[in-house]
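Researcher: Next sequence.
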Amino acid sequence: MSDKKILIVDDDFSVRETITDILKSQGWLVEGVPTGREAVEKTEEKNFDCVILDLRLPDFNGFEIIERIKNKVDKSKIVVITGYATDRIIVDALSKAEYFLLLKPVEPKQLISVVGKILEQ
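Model: Next structure:
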């Protein structure tokens, strides 16, 4: 069992649970929350080695959450996921080059590879 902690932030229960199951199968410690507010609270309570964050949440967008947690989580350890990858969102995300961007539905092998690279840093 690894001591690497990952936070999943996605309002879709099935997406959150699927990602949690995939990452737990690798031996990582995983917690999930459905809102940006809860993500901020969790990062204030604990240190996470990686945060996987949906761009569209019911209370905040993913970029707002990044701003709120940036003092607790290194931006290079944030994986942004979205099912609404408009050209503007992709350009904004990639131009910052501070985090990874994955499109939904997330491929398990790709998710494991990206998170594994982050956790090796």
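Model: The longest helix spans residues 108-120. The two ends are 18 Å apart (CA to CA).
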